[in-house]
Amino acid sequence: MTSAVITGTGSYIPSIKKENNQFLQNLFLNADGSSFSDSNAVIIEKFKSITGIEKRRYAKNDYTSSDLGYLAAKEAIKSANINPENLDYIIFAHNFGDVKKGAIQSDMLPSLASRVKHLLQIENPNCVAYDILFGCPGWVEGVIQAQAFIKAGIAKKCLVIGSETLSRVVDNYDRDSMIYSDGAGACVLEEKEGSNSGILSHTTQTFTKEEAYFLFFGKSFNKNLNKDTRYIKMHGRKIYEFALKNVPEAMKTVLDKSGVSIDEVKKIFIHQANEKMDDAIIKRFYKLHKKSVPQGITPMTIHELGNSSVATVPTLLDLVLKGNIKNQEVKKGDVIMLASVGSGMNINAITYRY
Description:
Layout: E1 2-12, E2 16-19, H1 40-51, E3 55-58, H2 65-80, E4 89-94, H3 112-119, E5 128-133, H4 138-151, E6 157-165, E7 182-193, E8 198-206, E9 215-219, E10 230-234, H5 236-258, E11 265-270, H6 275-288, H7 302-305, H8 312-321, E12 335-342, E13 346-353
Parallel strand pairs: 4-5, 4-6, 11-12
Antiparallel strand pairs: 1-7, 2-3, 6-7, 8-13, 9-10, 12-13
Helix pairs in contact: 2-3, 5-6
């Protein structure tokens, strides 16, 4: 039987750190442009207690999302020990393209996947490069698509990248801007015959009737700024309630499809969106199985790295697999889960035996 196996991972964590106290001088406003009654110190403390974020990473001014993706891809290719000329697909998940520092336009011509292929200097024309826009679950969806290509017999090696520079599309007058960060993660999936490792099951859902615009592009809360310049915006409470209701159910569905017992799951790599929300999702998932949450089941990077959208899951996976998160490891034969939720509104999850 053919399996789609992750043979290498990589990530790029930008070098610029921004701590919460560096927002103390920001002018935060309500959506109607009015000021908050609380001081920034109180706003930031409340923010930390909910999201768990203490720091986040921003890309250097001369780096774009495709640059970060290329650096993560190089690490994944090195980890997999493959010749990049043998790649059949490069799938690049992002949401905003390349946004240069200080720019107000997104650049996606050519695609970011094509830019990475160019940077890798791959000559093979049969290495197909394309982008995927799927919100924060984009990288997980790219992995699902790569597996489909491998299972269909039309690919043997695929590179899947998730990269974002959200610091370039935030409204500095919106306190939600403190959530977002920059980063990139990648993996190589290969065809393996008779392997016990690989993807056991997957599921994807899209909710749009009421939920399509829970995350959207909107104008600044500062009414004096150009109303035609748009920034990432969200209805946080609605997203929280949506995720808590639907993500645990999707995770249960994918685990049931795998035929694996919940007791066999050793790690859950969940999108690093909000610590309080992630904890609540995991608790509800285990409650659906009438189980308590095992200690250490969900590694976290959000405290130090913030929410880098499509990059959170692959970065987290890479750091754990390479022993870079204290007291977290994945052993050969372990069953792990990948899960994400984001704009669209999209949800997906994978059960994987390492």
